[in-house]
Automatic annotation (TrEMBL):
Residues 34-99 form the Lysozyme inhibitor LprI-like N-terminal domain. This is Lysozyme inhibitor LprI family protein. Pfam families: LprI. InterPro entries: LprI-like_N (IPR009739). Residues 1-26 form the signal peptide.
Amino acid sequence: MRGIQMASAGRLAGLASMFMCGIGLAAPVFAMDCAKAAQPIEKRICANPGLRAADARMNSAYAGVLKAAPDAAIRDMLVRSQRRWIDARNNRLGADYDGHAMAVDEVRKAIDRRTAVLADQSGKGLIARALAERQWLAKYTGGPLTGFDGNCDFIPDDASGAHVSYACFGAVHVQNRARVCSQSEDWATGAVYQYRLVSAADGGKVRPVAFCEAQAHASACDNGGTQSGWMRAGAAGGDNHASTPVTGLPQLDAEMWPIGDGDDAVWFDRCLTAAMFP
């Protein structure tokens, strides 16, 4: 629930579906081959020397971060991350939300921001965040239901939709023994909503137990007691928007990080280790 370029304050989650195209998992993608450009935004980039240069810089940064990946799991995560960005670019950067062509400067800014993310080798870069995420997950037993269900998209910065920012959304599921604790967030009409779910795990099967909904950073879901807004799964009147854990999700997603400090980490630790929760 961490936006690379956040369109609103706070952590965001759960807005857009991923559209598969573009980048294969086996090899990095370098500067665009304009002879094979198929998407409208690809053709637009190829037709503009400034955008072509920006795209070349981005792909050079992408090749660099792949080379710096310390192991295959993190490299695969980086490939998924870039594929996700390309999907969002193809679907959102061709036109604004009113259907007008996105300004060239806005497209270039989006590409340049992505280049900066890929080139960041600091403690805030994608590789460092993936390593910190892995260290945090190691505190718990793990299991087939641990995983990240992340989606990313360009969302509007204002009502016109002429300015957009890239942000990542989704759910984090962590298994500890027979319990799975999940946190997801949605963004809608400028507001952030948070959902938390507790499930019981039996091998690869899962049984939702209780869920809670609140605006992000509100206290309604922080208290483990049933009086704090938690509802039993399937309760009458309950509208469970929380993402249910499934097997086969990616085990790392740096764009869903940080979670290892602050209120989210406190909640996960209490949920995963308490004798009973909620």
